[in-house]
Amino acid sequence: MTLDRIHTSHAGSLPRTPELIAANAARRFAADGFTLESTPEFEGLLTDAVVDLVRRQRELGITIPGDGEYGKAMSNAVDYGAWWTYSFQRTAGLELTDFNPILAEPVLSAPGNIKLTSFADRRDWTRFAEAYRDPESGIQIGKNATAFPSATGPISYTGQAAIASDIANLKAGLEASGLSTGFITSLSPGSASRIGNDYYASEEEFIYAWADVLREEYRAIVDAGLTVQIDDPSIAENWDQINPEPSVEDYRRFTQIRVEALNYALRGLPEEQVRFHVCWGSWHGPHTTDIEFRHILDLVLGINAGSYSFEAGNARHEHEWTLWQDTTLPEGKILVPGVVSHATNVVEHPELVAQRIERFAGLVGREHVVASTDCGLGGRVHPQIAFAKLEALGRGAEIASNRLFARSGSSV
After folding, report:
1. Which Pfam families does its entry note (predicted)?
2. pTM higher than 0.85 for the full model?
3. What's the CA gap between 283 and 123, in Å, rounded?
4. Phi, psi of 277 (to 5 degrees)
C-alpha cells in the first residue's frame, strides 16, 4: 500500500444481504445439532455476495476491505455472536450438552481465584437488569445461528475447506475490484475457550488447545497473502464477566495467560500480516463496568501483531485517545482506531471523523494510523446505516489525508 493517504478499514462484520440471511436460515443442521451443512448453490451465493461487498467497500472509500465475515453464518438480522459461533463449525471434539455459557448459573470469584461467570450474570447486565429485560429499551442481544456446544474430547481443527472458501471469496472480490490486499477475521484462543469444558484438566490447558486449533486458520490466511485479524474482545470484556469485580492485578494475571496463548498460536507468523482487535463487547448496553483501557494497554501491545484495532469512537471509550500521549507505540506498529461506532444509529459527520483521525496521527504519526470502525457493523445496526457509516469513514479519511499530507507538499 502507498503511504500517500490515511488508509481505511473496518473491524470485520458487515450487514449480510437478506438473501444470505435467508439462505443461512434454510441450511440444515448435521447430526451433531450445531454444524450447518452447505450446498454448491449456497457456496455460489456466498461468493457472489462477497465479490459485491468488496466492490461496495471500495466505492465507499475503504482501502483495506474484508469479506464482511460472510462465511460466518448469520441467520438473523440482529446477531452479536457470529464472530464467535462460527468456530463451532470448524472444530472437532465438541458436542451439545446441558451447559449454556449465556444462561448458566452464576459463578462467584474470590481474590486470587477469579473465574468467568455466565453472560447473564455480567455486572453491567445485572446493574441495569430492568433495561436489559425491557424489549423497548433499545438494548438488543440478538439471536445466534447455532447453539453453544461444549468440549467433550480432544479438539482439533476441521475448517480447512471453510477457510479455503473464505480466502477464495475474498481474493475473487479483491481481483474484481482491482485491490491488492484485504483481511479475514479469526477467533482468539481466549475468546474461543468461553464454552463448556468437560475434557481438559484445566482452563489453561483448554486455552492452549484452542491455540493449536486456531493456529491452522491463522496460517491459512497469512499463507494466502492476506491479513488475519484476531478477534479477542475477551481481553477487555472478561472484566465485566467476573463477579464480584476483581482487583486489576488479579485480572491482569488472568489475562496474561490468554496473551501468552495467543502469542504461542502466532509464533513464526509475519507480524505485518497480523491485526489484533480488542473491544468491550458490541451489544448496545450501558457499558458502565468496562475496564479502563489504561489497565490493559500494555498487555494488548504485548501481542505479536503488526497493528492494533480498538474502540475509540463511542461515548464510553473515545476519551482514551489521550493514553497515546504517554504511550510509546513500538517501532513499526500501526494503530487501527475506531473513528465511527457500531454503538449508535447516528452517522458520524465526516469532519468529526477527520478530527478523530488527526488526533491519532498527531500522536503516533500519520504513517502509523489506519482509520476504522469501533467494532463490526453487521448484525448491530441497520444495513442502510452501516454503509452510511462506512461512507462517512471514507470521506473523513479523505479530509484528514488532504490536510495531513498536504502539509509536506503531497496530496491524495
Report:
1. Meth_synt_2
2. yes
3. 14
4. -115, 125
